[in-house]
């Protein structure tokens, strides 16, 4: 891929090398040019598995417009012998892990890995952002609905007993859980979201509360569900302990959690445009696995997938990030100027290589857990 002289002149040597030496040959580049959405999937079976048999399937869709879509799927299961858990290459070093390449990783506690260098997430800030986004959330969160649909499909068709939806937002998925036959309860830290949920749905119960301090009794729920909410917590261990506490013995948890590696295109475009990075914190898949392991929950399955959303222009992309409450979670950053936005748009357009198709990746780990 070649850049215009004007853009090259505005870049540092390091930024130019990102294009000239790497990005043009990246697998993601090929996916962008396919004019569809792209997802990569790595699946690893339970801790007792001895082999993960490999299979590769590719399916590409060609959307007719620039609306938010994720229609293509790339799944790959790498052959790997396991003694405990298996982590994808690039995950943090954690106890009991073996890479997909087969080399043993040094045992020890998980080392914190962040997208940037953000400070601890402030739950009040997160609640405020999501409350502000509540009214338009359902119309904006197209990719979130696709991810939640996959998570819901992982559950049994008929749910029995009681189910908790953590980070229920506007309640759309809580209602789906109720439709499956369960007595559904939704919990969220954003009162604005809960207000919308109560207006729209009368069957489920909606309660304000935090995932790190769930306002429920021990062993109250037979199923715990969560989609695209737990990435905003700063302590995976606390969340894991709370899920273990409120689950009944024999209960299941199905969780879809955005992890480190999300929004990679936006991060790269900011670097190329020589703009400061937005401070975000998202735990890695390995950190979540360690948290669940330490809580006593049994990991049955984890699948990590990249869901790629596409946008017509940079403002649409930025509004989608802000509109779903996924802004900075660290120190406040100065707002982008018009010049900054123009530089970001130019960098993004040259990266994608597809006219009017700006991609944004949501990396999501789908966990299945059991309390024994």
TrEMBL record:
Q: Does the keyword Ion transport apply?
A: no
Keywords recorded for this protein, A-Z: Methyltransferase, Transferase
Where in the numbering of this chain does the Methyltransferase type domain appear? 164-252
Tell me the SUPFAM superfamilies matching this sequence: S-adenosyl-L-methionine-dependent methyltransferases
Q: Name one GO molecular function term.
A: S-adenosylmethionine-dependent methyltransferase activity
| CDD domains listed in its UniProt record | AdoMet_MTases
GO terms (BP aspect): methylation
Is the keyword DNA-binding assigned to this protein?
A: no
Please state what the protein is called.
Methyltransferase
Source organism: Alteromonas macleodii
């Amino acid at each position: 891929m070649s850049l215009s002289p004007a853009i090259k002149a505005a870049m540092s040597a390091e930024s130019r090398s990102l294009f000239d030496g790497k990005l043009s040959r990246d697998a993601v580049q090929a996916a962008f040019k396919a004019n569809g959405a792209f997802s990569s999937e790595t699946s690893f079976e339970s801790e007792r598995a001895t082999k993960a048999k490999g299979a590769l399937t590719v399916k590409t869709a060609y959307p007719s417009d620039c609306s938010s879509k994720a229609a293509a799927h790339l799944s790959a299961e790498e052959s790997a012998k396991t003694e405990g858990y298996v982590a994808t290459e690039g995950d943090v070093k954690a106890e009991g892990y073996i890479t997909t390449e087969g080399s043993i990783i040094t045992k020890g506690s998980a080392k914190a890995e962040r997208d940037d260098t953000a400070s601890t997430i402030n739950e009040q800030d997160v609640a405020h952002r999501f409350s502000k986004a509540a009214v338009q959330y359902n119309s904006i969160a197209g990719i979130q609905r696709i991810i939640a649909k996959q998570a819901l499909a992982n559950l049994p068709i008929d749910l029995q007993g009681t189910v908790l939806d953590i980070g229920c937002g506007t309640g759309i998925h809580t209602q789906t859980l109720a439709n499956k036959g369960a007595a559904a309860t939704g919990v969220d830290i954003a009162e604005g979201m809960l207000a919308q949920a109560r207006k729209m749905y009368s069957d489920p119960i909606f309660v304000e509360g935090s995932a790190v301090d769930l306002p429920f009794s021990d062993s109250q729920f037979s199923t715990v569900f969560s989609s695209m909410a737990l990435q905003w917590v700063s302590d995976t261990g606390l969340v894991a302990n709370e899920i273990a506490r409120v689950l009944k013995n024999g209960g299941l948890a199905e969780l879809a959690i955005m992890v480190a590696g999300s929004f990679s295109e936006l991060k790269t475009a900011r670097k190329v445009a020589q703009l400061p990075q937005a401070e975000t914190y998202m735990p890695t898949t390995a950190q979540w696995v360690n948290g669940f392991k330490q809580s006593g929950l049994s990991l049955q399955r984890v699948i990590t997938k990249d869901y790629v959303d596409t946008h017509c222009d940079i403002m649409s992309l930025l509004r989608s990030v802000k509109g779903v409450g996924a802004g900075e979670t660290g120190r406040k950053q100065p707002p982008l100027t018009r010049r900054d936005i123009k530089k970001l748009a130019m960098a993004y357009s040259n990266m994608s290589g597809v006219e009017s198709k700006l991609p944004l990746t949501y990396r999501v780990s789908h966990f299945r857990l059991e309390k024994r």
